[in-house]
Amino acid sequence: MVTKSNRAGEPRPPARKRLWTGLSVGAVVLLALGVVGAFLLGRGRADQSPQASPQASPKAGGHGWFPHGVVPEPGPPDRDREAVIAALRALDACALLDLDYAKSHRNPNAVTIPTGPHSCSLVADANWSPGYSRLSLAVGADNDFEGRFSEKPIALGGAKAYEIDQGDDSLPDCVLDLPVSYTLSIELKTDASAGCQLVEDYGAATVAKLADPDARGVDTAKRPLSAWDGCAFLTSLYGPDLDGYRLTPNSRSSDPFSGCESSNERGKTGPSLKVTYDKWAPKRTDQLIRIAGKDAAVRGGAGTCTVSWHQGGSSSPNEWFGSVIFELADADCVTAERHAAEAVELAERAPEGSASRPQRPLLYGPDDNDTGRIGACADLFNSPCAPYQGGVTVAPTFEAAAADSQADQAVQCEAFSEAVKSAYGSSFSPVIWGTHCMFVEPTHDMLVYVDIDGKNVPADYGTDPSLWADRQVKPIDGKQSVTFWDTRRSEYDVYYSPYGDISRPGNLHIHLAADHPRGVRGTSTATLEPARAELAERVITLVDRKYFR
Questions:
Q1: How many CB atoms lie within 10 A of CB 211?
Q2: Which partner from 252, 397, 410, 469 sits 20 to 30 angstroms from 244, CA to CA?
Q3: Predicted confidence (pLDDT) per residue in 223-278, tens digit
């Protein structure tokens, strides 16, 4: 959900993506930064006060967003990308689906149908057509930390996997990812009514098959374009014109690894490629032409032009996947058509052999680090992040502690750690991001953000009725405080005056933000349980009593 605004100077997290669905374009769900902590769950709003709070605006200088002594340690490096790509390119997607199990336990007529050079579907029979359910597997799906953050981690057959139920009773949609690097996975998904149980059953079988990847090799002579991956193809096609562009599998395709998308560090989109097995069916509005002897269709848009063409037969046994279809998009039609003609010729050649040995083992163990994040930072959407290691002393007066927390944000973590765990459970762990201390937990259904702020006036917060609701000025443990909800009842704040005077600068602050738990697609705003909100007052009380009275 996009926020109404974001504070100047706040780093903005990347978009949280939704995985592709069937052959359609996946929807993208953006996370944007908002006020005090809620930005980490994509639930933030505009400033709570008329004056931007220094605790919500990381100070300049120091190590990135870390202004003082805390320097995040780099996580372990990712696997060698070329080795991972070499391993994926050699796999037969259909060989990773357990057809024997399907025939013996579910449907004796079941078949596997290649749906692209690196994708396959398990269907009820060879006459499958759109509208009937299927189980699909794609080798080399784009699945990075952003995607895994919203997926539920599970152990499957001794390997790490991630799962998310994106459907509902009327439209099942379950996705399971088996990570093979920090950014790539082998992905199973289904629209069958059995949903996540089905992908788990077949996912476990896929894990077992990948214990010996060499036995699951693809016959490139029988699977057109399977010798290539999409980004190798696009690189060969464009050469140095792609220097400075980041290349990723095409997330808008049912066979992402056979396609490729490009973008540079400024966010400019470059050429993109899709290669799938499909029916050749140009749209009525397309301009039909011939390119290098192939039937082609051209459609232009604002700043982009897409050329698609029928490269030839796919050898798939099903008519709906009987043709190799290319789609190349570029900034203008002249450039797109020129490169399309070159691509027709390139597709008939084999790629250069990889100098890298295939990644072994290919899958991660249940406890392996597959994101590069350290410790509890795996449960914080933003980066860079540092887990709080303990050992910090909290000064015995509020004024000294507030001054110390401006110099060392770990002071906030130490002061609140015992109280937060007492109220919400030991699964909450403190982490540091910028000048902030947050408490995160593995299900991601609630974020806790805390402050020891010596400068801002509690009375200034929560005054805009278009953003905040149920604002109260009330005593908490005998001290005047301000509490309020956001209008969606997903966030709750307490600004507690250690002096008992909300017009005086200085406050202890706790912010709670609810989100849907991992593994479930949220179709509406998550709501925060009132009982959890009430516990925030207990947290504040415990901190004040322990350190400042």
A1: 14
A2: 252
A3: 999 999 999 999 999 999 999 999 999 999 999 999 999 998 887 889 999 999 99
